[in-house]
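Escalated from tier 1: adenosine-5'-triphosphate holo job.
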Amino acid sequence: MEQLFYYLKVSWFSVKRAPLPYMLTVLILSLGLGVFFSNATFYYRINSDPLPAKSDKLFFPMMLLVPYQCSNCKPPSVLSYSNIAKLNASDIPSAKAAMYSAGGYLRLNSEQAPTPVNVRITQRDFFSMFDVPMLHGSIWPDNQARDEVLLSKATAEKLFGRTNVTGQQVLLDDRLFTVIGVLDQWQMLPRLYDAFNRNYLNPTEDIYLPLESGYDYNYLSNTNSSTFEDADYRKLATDGRTKAIHQLQYWVQLDTLAQQNAYRQFMANLVADEKAAGRHPSAEANQLVMMRDIVSYFDGESGDIKAFAIVTLLFLLVCVFNASHLSLNRYLSNQYEFSLRRALGANRSQLQVQLLVDMGLMSTFTLTGAAIIAYGGIKLMNYLWPANSLFASWDLQLMLALAALTLLCSYLVTLYPSLRASFGSLNKQLKE
Amino acid sequence: MITLTNLGKIFRTELIETHALRDVNLQVNEGEFAALTGPSGSGKSTLLNILGTLESFDSGDYQLDGKSVKGLSDAALSKLRNEKIGFIFQSFNLIKDFSIYDNIELPLRYRGLNAAARKQRIEQALELVGLHARRDYLPGQLSGGQQQRVAIARAIAGEPRILLADEPTGNLDSLMARQVMELLEQINRQGCTILMVTHDPDQARRAGRNIQIIDGQLHDSTLYDPLAQHTA
Ligand SMILES: Nc1ncnc2c1ncn2[C@@H]1O[C@H](COP(=O)(O)OP(=O)(O)OP(=O)(O)O)[C@@H](O)[C@H]1O
Ligand SMILES: [Mg+2]
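Tier 2 regenerated the structure:
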C-alpha cells in the first residue's frame, strides 16, 4: 500500500515535469471518448431490448388480407377491423391486442384551455403484454366500448396536480370520460410495439382509450392507414368496421414454440378459408415477426445514427493514435529516469507496476474529462434533435462500459511507450 | 570477489564493429580500492558497466562472489544491482525534482524495506556524507560537490559490497574533488570494495591498485607509472 503511494508520487512528479503535454494527452483522449460515448449512449439505447424476458414471446402477425391482387408483396403492417376480428377468434395466444394511435385534446372542464395529447386506442391485453405498471385503479375488464380511460402518471399530474384520480372525469375532445386507472412511470425504450416508420423513438402515450370507443367516436389513426375500394376512411364507426380500412397493428403473446407453430398454422388456415371465400386474391405472404426482430424487419435501423456511430469510432481511434504519440514523447523524455531506476535495482516488473499506476492516474483524469464531454455532447444532441432525447440517459452499465473503455484506451496509450521504456538499453541514458 | 576471464565486448552498429574490450582477465578482491585509468575511448566505462550488469558482454565470463552472472534473469540481475552494487556517475544522475532524502531512498524503495528501516539507512548515509541538514533540499540547491556526495549517499545507503564510480570527480573542482575522494577512502576503509574510473593521476596514485586499459586491453599494475599513460 505504501509502495503504491510511492508509485503514485513518482507518476505525479512526472506529470508535473511536463504538465502541458500531459494535459493535451488527457484532453485528446477525453474528447475522443466523450464524443464516442455520447453517440454510443444513443446507439445502445435505441438498440436495447425493452422487455428482455418477453421480446421473444411477443409476435406481430401480418397477412395479405387485402382486396387486391399483388405478387411478391410484403403484407402491410396494418390490418382492418374485420381482419382483427378473425384473428382475435383464436385462443392460441396467451394475450392479444389490436391498437393504433390518434391525437386528441384533453381538459378537465370547458373553461380550461385544452392540451394536445397522444392517445393510444387499444384493447385490455395491451397492459399485461407490455408489462405496463399500474399506479392506481385498474384496466378495462373486457374489450367492450366504454367511456373509460387510463392516464399516464405525467398526464394525471399535469391535469389534476396529483395521481390518485380514479373515478374523476375528463373531457377528451369534449366528450366526458371517467378515469379508471393511472399508470405508474412508464417509458418503454425503444417503444417497439409501434415500430413501423421509426415510431419506436417516440415517447409513450398520454391517455389510453378502448378500441371500440375509438372506432365509435371516429378517431382516425395518426400513423399509417390505408383504405381500399369504396370505403370512406372518415366513417370509422361504420365503414371502418365492415370495409377495407387498414389501420390496426396487432400483437399476440405466444409463450412456447408449440404455441408459435400452432399460431402459424392458424394463420395459414385462415388464408385458406379467405381464399375459398374469394377474399385473398394474392398468394399467401404471412409473417409472424418476433418483437426482438421488429425493427430490422421494418428496416427501421437508423442509417444516419449508425453512420455517425462509425464516424465517432474512427474519431476515437485517431484520438488514441495521437494520444499515444504524445505519450511516447513523454516517456522518451522520462526514459533517463527509468534507466536510472533500473540501474539502481528496480526490475522490469516493478517498472511495469509503475506504468500501471501511471495508467491508472491517466484513466482517472481521462474518465472525468470524457464523462464531462459526453454529458455535454448528449445535451447538445438533445438540443439539436429533441425527438431523440429519450435515449440520452445513462445507467450503471453504461458508466461501467465507459470506464472500461477509458481503461482500455489508456492502456493502449501507455503500452507501447512502456515497452520502449523498460526494454531500452540501460547505460546510454546515464552517460549524458 | 570479482573474477573476469577472457571477457570480450563488441559494439556493433550498421557501419562498424568496435571491440570495446578484448580478452580481459581481472581479479578484484574484497576491500580493494582500484583505479581504472586509460585514454578516452579505451573501454573504461564499458568495463564498469559490465561489472555493474548494466551492459552485457559477448565472450568470456564474469563471476561475482563465485557465481557467473551469465544467464541470470532480469529479476535476479536487478536484485544483484540493488543489493550488492552501488553506482556513482560522473554527472551525479540525481532526480531534479525529488528531495535529497527521496533521491537517496530510491534504491531502497525497490528492496521491500519498511519505512523505518529505510529511514535509518538514509539518515546513516546522510550522516556519513555530512549533509544531514540538507535532507529536504532539491539537488539544484546544492553545489556540485554536495550533489556528488548525495549520489554517494544513495550508492551506499543500500550497504553494497562493491562501489563502481565512473569519473566521480570529473565534474568537480579540485577542492570538492578532494572531499569526494576522502569520502570514498573512508567508505573503503569500512570494507567496501571500490572500482573507480579516473583521469586524475593524483587520485590514481592514492588508490591501492591501478588498472590501466588501453584499446580495450588490460594492463594491471599496482605501481603507478605516470609515463605509461603518456606514451601509450
Ligand atoms: N553503445 C555503444 N555503441 C557503440 N559503441 C560504443 C557504445 N558505447 C561505447 N562504445 C565504444 O566503445 C569504446 C569504449 O567506450 P567507453 O565509453 O568504454 O570508453 P571510456 O574509456 O569510458 O572513454 P572516456 O574516458 O571518454 O569516458 C569506444 O570506442 C566507444 O565509441
Ligand atoms: Mg567513460
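The domain at 29-58+70-231 of chain B is CATH 3.40.50.300 (Rossmann fold).
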